[in-house]
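Re: duplicated header lines in exported structure tokens

Our pipeline writes sequence and tokens for each protein into one text file. With two proteins the header for the second block appears twice in some exports. Here is an export where it did not happen, for reference. First protein block:
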Amino acid sequence: MTSSHDSTDADIGARIRTERLERGWSLTDLAERSGVSRAMINKVERGESSPTASLLGRLSGAFGFTLSVLLARAEGVRGGRLARAADQPRWQDPASGYIRRQISPVQGSGIRLDLVHVALPPGASVAFPASSYAFMRQVILVLGGHLTFIEGDVVHELGVEDCLELGSPADCTFRNETDADCTYLVAVVPR
């Protein structure tokens, strides 16, 4: 019997393989574009590894779209103008335990806005490479708790209702250095 987590890993792996093959890329091509090893990509594609948010960020960046789009495609999310709360895709990072929920309609809505709600547990940290941000603009709005956001060499300490527009693409880390959950929204639009 397969758990829903195993099923999600298999769906994500299948989607990554589909995206790679649709582009005519070998494992080596994707590895070079993403900075993820061939062996790891192969394990993810076969559903043998639970990919982290950072790893998925690297892979989705190599494909030229957001992590949200990759996850929505993996889950087979249909487009439309209404994304009911009960139907909004949720994904939990196996490394940090952070939970991301796709709030905005993903495909077919005509809006080029990606709106994501994130719950970052106490002590958790999630890092993304600059390549994940090369084709998009982002704004972060803290809803609850405290977020330490590291953008390249710059550290931003963000409290409730603080809003930050990201600058030029840089390696970024979302960090919760407190003993309470941190929740925030990320709004993403193409450059």
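Second protein block, exported in the same file:
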Amino acid sequence: MSSRWRDLRFGSLRIDRQNGKYLYRVEVHHGSIKPGDVQIELYANPQPGELPFREPMALGRAVVETRGVYEYSGFAPANRPPDYYTPRAVPRRRGLSVPLEFALIAWQK
């Protein structure tokens, strides 16, 4: 997967506020990576005394016009500014400690 990781990239990002939370929707261009081999999640650096915020995003529809592009969605608390959270892609492997054991991470920004 390492050689194909550079093909993965993020497209448009939309953020809406719903019921006191932010709803993030992001398009991900998978290239030759299968959706089951990657986890798209929202990430935020930790506040003092907290763990980093990591929330898996749900795989939604395939973008019909473009092959290999999928939309993902997920929620984050609205107690911080919306740009505090960043979608990212990490390899989906059981028991894997990212980035300590496998340094492949793709960031939306």
